[in-house]
Design a protein that fits this description.
The protein is α+β, with helices and mostly antiparallel strands. It is 32% helix and 31% strand. It is globular. The protein binds coenzyme A (COA).
Length: 158
Amino acid sequence: MEIAELTEEDLDSYLELFSEDESAKQTMERAGFKLEKEAFKNRLSSFPTWIKVFVLRSDRVEGAVCIAGAENLNLPDSALIVDLRIRKESRKRGYGSMLLETALEYARKKGVKRVVTIVSEMNVAGIKLFHKFGFKPYSILQDYYVLGENAVAMEKVF
Ligand SMILES: CC(C)(COP(=O)(O)OP(=O)(O)OC[C@H]1O[C@@H](n2cnc3c(N)ncnc32)[C@H](O)[C@@H]1OP(=O)(O)O)[C@@H](O)C(=O)NCCC(=O)NCCS
């Protein structure tokens, strides 16, 4: 198992991660990503600010984290964890933590002062994971998801 930047060879396996989860598609669509290979590649290469996808892979992608600059969201010196996910059958083995650590380290080295993320308030695992890494809730986003659940905006200040 290794963590590396997403390559073109990873793309099919990476995009498969989202087929497991309807709300994941919604998260990515909010960031302007269609979960189809060519459209995804084009969006990555024309993203309005810096963006990185790190994957955890063996013979396939087991999980990934996507982090981007947040200047375009009026959050200077900040980065947004757009998405973090691990295949269902590979959860609870520390992989989510490894990927989050990689993304935070990358942001720190880039001089980012604050990292934010948005998680469904129903997502106990996600909230606990970010909390464990020092993220604190700072805002509730009412009716953020299609099914009407609220989201929690969380931040970590370096
Ligand atoms: C959230 C997610 C990324 C966690 O990945 P993971 O590899 O299972 O996480 P780890 O094994 O590194 O666990 C780290 C911490 O997360 C929390 N956690 C993970 N799964 C949990 C669960 N099912 N219930 C409660 N807490 C959980 C715990 O605090 C855990 O620390 P601990 O083991 O010391 O208790 C994974 O559940 C996932 O892909 N969920 C769907 C996508 C998602 O919700 N992403 C987050 C919002 S973008």
